[in-house]
Amino acid sequence: MSVGRIIVPVSGPRLLESKLDHALALAKRFHSRVDVLFLYGSVDPLTIEKNPFFGEAAWETAEINWSQEESAQMDVQTRLDRWSRERGAPYRQAATSGASPHVRFHEIRSDYARALQEHGRTSDVIVIGQPGRGMAAMDIEINKLSVMASGRPVLIVPNEPRPAEQLLTNMFVAWDGGAQASRTVGLAMPILEAAQQVTVYTSGDPDEARSRHELLKPYFVCNGITAKFVIEDHASRRIGRALLEAADRNGATLICMGAYENPRAIQLIIGGNTRHVYSWSRVPILLSF
Question: Which strands form 125-129's sheet, in the order they lie side by side?
Answer without folding.
Answer: 102-108, 33-39, 5-10, 125-129, 154-157, 285-288, 254-258, 171-174, 198-203, 227-232
